[in-house]
Write a structure and sequence with these properties.
By secondary structure, the protein is mostly helical. It contains 14 helices and no strands. It has a domain of about 55 residues. Helix 5 runs antiparallel to helix 6, helix 7 packs antiparallel against helix 8 and helix 10 runs antiparallel to helix 11. The N and C termini lie far apart (about 50 Å). It holds the Pfam family RPN7.
């Protein structure tokens, strides 16, 4: 239990560093001196009386995510509001219970929020995870005119769903939108594989070369996150 508490504390501190764009040397301190580094970071960069409850809650949710679910269920029972239901759906999505997440998202949309981009975007994530590609396409087409849809992960998932439905030209059009330098590393690798599948070797090779080149300029934290993706891009390029 002590070990998991330290891991949770580290995860919270690193998340806080990235979210608030604090200097990255904190990540090394937290990583290499787990307990002391985390405590120093919290005392100097995070902690004040107003934040104490948030810190405790965040760590508790990492250790025991089902407690967060129970708390949100009680909150919804007490006050059945749109936001409380969406918060509960989000929590189910976080732990991978996609069916329950979808149920609550659908219930939320039955009111006056049929075109809520945030909710439909999350529903598309859940439908993708359960491989219900027809529903991905249907819901994406409700929000594809929204400005936040363009060049987003949601558009990428829409493109993948169109591929599964055999609509290759439309799929390519939407997958191509996420080919943006220094972003969407995982998605662009998938896009490169898609291009190879439809015999567009030159275009796929260009994307793979860009990924490998960009990998050389990544910060150390990003290399930890996307290092495997860049390695896979190198392997795929070498296989061509």
């Amino acid at each position: 239990m002590y070990f998991y508490l330290i891991i949770a504390l580290q995860a919270f501190c690193i998340y806080h560093v990235i979210k608030h764009r604090n200097p990255y040397y904190w990540i090394f301190l937290i990583f290499f001196i787990p307990l002391l580094g985390s405590v120093i970071y919290i005392l100097t960069q995070v902690y004040n009386k107003r934040d104490a409850d948030k810190i405790t809650s965040g760590i508790t949710n990492i250790i025991n995510p089902t407690k967060k679910i129970r708390d949100l269920e009680k909150k919804l029972e007490f006050s059945e509001t749109y936001q409380n239901r969406v918060n509960l759906a989000d929590a189910y999505l976080e732990i991978g219970d996609n069916e329950k997440a979808l149920k609550h998202y659908k219930d939320a949309l039955e009111g006056n929020f049929q075109n809520d981009f945030y909710v439909i975007k999350n529903m598309i994530e859940a439908f993708t995870k359960i491989e219900d590609y027809k529903s991905v396409v249907t819901h994406a087409e409700h929000i594809k005119s929204h400005p936040e849809f363009v060049k987003s992960r949601t558009q990428f998932l829409y493109g993948l769903a169109l591929e599964r439905e055999g609509k290759l030209e439309e799929a390519e059009e939407n997958l191509k939108a996420i080919d943006v330098r220094f972003s969407f590393y995982n998605e662009r690798l998938v896009y490169a594989q898609f291009l190879l599948n439809i015999n567009k070797k030159v275009e796929a090779q260009s994307i793979l070369e860009s990924l490998i080149s960009e990998g050389q300029y990544m910060t150390k934290p990003n290399k930890k996150i996307y290092g495997a993706t860049i390695a896979d891009a190198k392997k795929l390029l070498e296989s061509l």
